[in-house]
Amino acid sequence: MRRMNFTDTQVATSETARGINRGIVLNLIRRRQPISRADLARVSGLQRSTVSLITEQLIREKWVIYGPTGRLPRGRRPTFLRLNERRAILVVDLRPEITTFAVSDVNGRFLSLQGMPTPSSPEAATAKFSAKIRQMVDSHPELVFEGIGMSVPGRFNDSRQRVVFAPNLKWPEFDLREPLEKALGMRVEVENAANACVLAEVWFGHAEKTRDMVVITVSEGLGVGIFSNGRLIRGLNGMAGEFGHVPLDVDGPRCSCGGRGCWEVFASNRAALRYYHESSAAGNGPSFQDLLSLAESGDSLALKALDRMAHAIGRGTRMIVAGVAPEEIVFVGEFTRMWKRLAPVIESEVAAAVLAGEPPKVRPAGAEPSVARLRGSVALVLQKHFGPSIVTENRGFAASSQAEARVQ
Ligand SMILES: [Zn+2]
Question: pTM for this one?
């Protein structure tokens, strides 16, 4: 027997059992669909009557629909349940240069995808984003939209409802949530990009049972999302995970945060480009994508620049191993295209940081960076419904005392 991990839905201990049971059933349907009521009861450990009451409610609310009818050698034909794919989420991946918009169903499948250059200010972004979102929602009249999920290259301060630290975006502190909610009449959830990637792994990846995981996103900057003891760690002001701005060399290059020699200035895509420029006479520099292509074609200077970047990624990862001791470290970034070459460099640094016991598993994310951030934004909206925090009014519902289900 092992305990099933439902903490990805941010279980609060004070939630009522029926809310928790509802989350358990919804997540089991999501993971194992199509699934019969009998299997839901067996896998969750909940009583069949409890499962029936919950699924009836989910069907009434149109979260769940009947799937195909199963066939047994003899006896009754069980009716399978699955998520209603007409429930959709509009997701936004705000990056320093390009912002991507997608329509996703509840299973994280994208139905349409569009991009635009990121506007230069939050005010301009509100106007352009709401027009784009309205247009995308209108083009899918068959769908019921649950809300908007947005990942940002900064930290979201939940108590102040603002993005408070986004050095690579070069915007001042901003609030896109309220203006967009006002303009669109839909609920908007905002999350840091690295935290969104954690949610993507937990919801749509293979990390269903991992309780201690760190996701490191490497792009223009370097972000860290910490999933510890089954919870996303946000910290004071939402600022947890800013390992990228720990100075590793106080005499190092200037960082976008105003400091010097941060981990990020040695380990980001920008760092690799700087290493390449330092060693090559090339005038107009390549993009990071070009640098990867050069490396793939065997360009020794490009390979050297990426090796230096990987060493810096590994060196900084030692802070995380020593401080957080995750089971798993997942990397999100274009550099993972070169994973075969760069992984041993990172793995040896990680192994050297382990003071006792096994080293953590180190791997690239299941999805490419933009897809990971968008999927994480889908989970951001879904967890409001699938999580046990949603307690809806229902009649004649006997709450079970089980706070956590058991699976065999
Ligand atoms: Zn910095």
Answer: 0.85
